[in-house]
Here is the input.
Amino acid sequence: MRESSPAFGLFAVVRSLLNICLGTLLLWPAVAVAQMVDNTQAINPINAGINKSLRQEIGASRGSVNTPDSSLFIINRDAFRAVRRGRQLFQRKFTRAQGQGPGIDDGVGNIGTTIGIGAGLADSCAACHGRPRGSAGLGGDVVTRPDSRNAPHLFGLGLREMLADEMTSDLRAVRSQAIASAKQKRQPVSLPLVTKGVSFGSITGNPDGSVNTSQVQGVDPDLRIRPFFAQGGTISMREFIVGALHGEMGLEAVDPDLAAASAGARVVTPSGMVLDGSQDAIEAPPPPDPLNGNEIDVALVDHLEFYLLNYFKPGSSHQDIRAQHGLQVFNQLGCTTCHVQNLTINHDRRVADINTVYDPVNGIFNRMFATATALIHTVNDRSGLPPLMVPNGQPFVVQNIFTDFKRHDLGPNFHERNWDGTIQTEFLTRALWGVGSVGSLGHDGRSINLVEVILRHGGEAQASRDAFANLSSQDQQDQGDAGALRHFLETLLLFPPDDTASNLDPGNPSAPNFPQNGHGSIKLTVLFNNPKDPE
Here is the structure.
């Protein structure tokens, strides 16, 4: 039996009215900040922190869709709670008693062969990804390279993995077609490698089933797009999560999904992401901690992955006439050759979308307002349990991402030293959404503002860089085309979800002690199966 999901606006109103009737609004936690304490450990009179202990967040471990309090049950039957639980885990300050630390080899060894030694040691994901406050943002810096690496923001991370997966499938389908045609024609066949309007060169199939990849551009010969890390080094959020827990926090997650996929199996994670070890080299999880064994239960990894899959995309500030002109200049200079503005996902696995835009009326604290839209339908499986929440899996246009997922050589100003003495020359096109909120720019944080990072471009972007430099030299008092382009980029913003009013929590400027209270937020609590049980 398939039932349509109600719109979020109605869902929120119903939940809110129910809570008012039951008097449960008083039970909702105060707005949280980046990095959060555990209220069961760090007791405070205003109850400002995570409401569940780590043991409670683990619940019944992974279980099944019919095992209450398991990650599979919550993800499939109480999806918005699963997102929120993942968020609380992301903000959680882990303790030594829970296994936090030491870092890889405790920071001692040959960093040329073990770059994780330079990762540092944190007690929370938000220690590196925590600005704007309460978000999966930016703010960290590591020395896994001699000239450092900026910790990027994680807004829209799930959208990036889904796009990369689909683009990889498209490229590999072209490869299969080239081989099949070559066998049929008994001669080499070359085909263009194009996916979602982005060209990755061409590939030649041979009658014997081999391929010539000498004309492949911007991706490895295996045609796998790796959307994470500046050099394009990791395929999936799950690898990123387990690797960061190990490298940056000293927490060992012996994840069964990564273990199976790294051994060659095809695995579908609870978030619906496919890890195919028969096609790709999947990173294996770390071994158990010598003293504590497996320190991070698989349920915690499941919730973190689901959270990042559904994490908000960046917002867009006021698109005034000058910003619109700046986008036109951006196009005219050829910047969108690499920074492709919009890309379409064919099969969206998320359960919701959050669209955050400039709204000086309803954005009562920061002039930004978020509108949440459901992307699910419910299915009554006649189990007597809450209905299944199933993603609609429809196409979705990812707007203002500004990337092509290709690696490019932007010249020596962007080249990077490695600890082993080699030089990294190619990097993924940095997605520009959120760039207006980034202080230090470039994968290494070495550029001080938007103008300087543009002028730093060279190599494949030399012509666009020179055209911008010419505009800048003519731009009196920053009022011309160059200033308009910079103004447009500054409208591509990150936002603090706890301080951004939304249709889930519009806020109330008349609330006592506004804006400490009543400023509005993106509050998923109203969408839980039981809103009286906060995370």
User: Anything to note?
Assistant: Residues 1-33 have pLDDT under 50 and may be disordered. The first helix runs from residue 8 to 22. The longest strand covers residues 198-205.
